[in-house]
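Figure 6 in text form: structure in, sequence out.
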């Protein structure tokens, strides 16, 4: 089940032959445990960011005055995602979209925290989903 999906620009890891960083549009899909990213909406899964060890503080909206070092199509509406092993960067198409992603990511983490604190019996209820928590 996807709690949110849309296109975000993902900053590359810089692990390639020339260690270059760049921003690539990726179709992103938020699940209860990860942020998956694909080549395009119906495309191949390129990777996933594990959110199971993240907290609400793991997500940060970056200031819009962060410099852009290249001519990529990415925007100034950027988020940082800190996991125990890596810091990821994504950029949304607008300020509103950035805040929607930030709230959705935080809601998924809060939901997971609530699930781990209480005995789990059966499926997740609709009223516990991030869409309801975002209201």
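Output sequence:
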């Amino acid at each position: 089940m996807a709690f949110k999906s849309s296109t975000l620009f993902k900053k590359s890891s810089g692990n390639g032959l020339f260690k270059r960083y760049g921003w690539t549009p990726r179709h992103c899909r938020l699940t209860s445990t990860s942020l998956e990213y694909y080549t395009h909406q119906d495309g191949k899964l390129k990777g996933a960011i594990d959110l199971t060890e993240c907290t609400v503080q793991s997500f940060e909206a970056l200031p819009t005055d962060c410099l852009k070092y290249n001519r990529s199509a990415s925007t100034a509406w950027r988020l940082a995602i800190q996991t125990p092993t890596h810091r990821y960067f994504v950029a949304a198409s607008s300020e509103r979209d950035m805040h929607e992603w930030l709230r959705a990511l935080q809601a998924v983490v809060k939901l997971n925290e609530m699930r781990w604190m209480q005995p789990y019996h059966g499926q997740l209820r609709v009223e516990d989903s991030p869409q309801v928590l975002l209201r």
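Caption detail: The helical segments are 95-117, 130-133.
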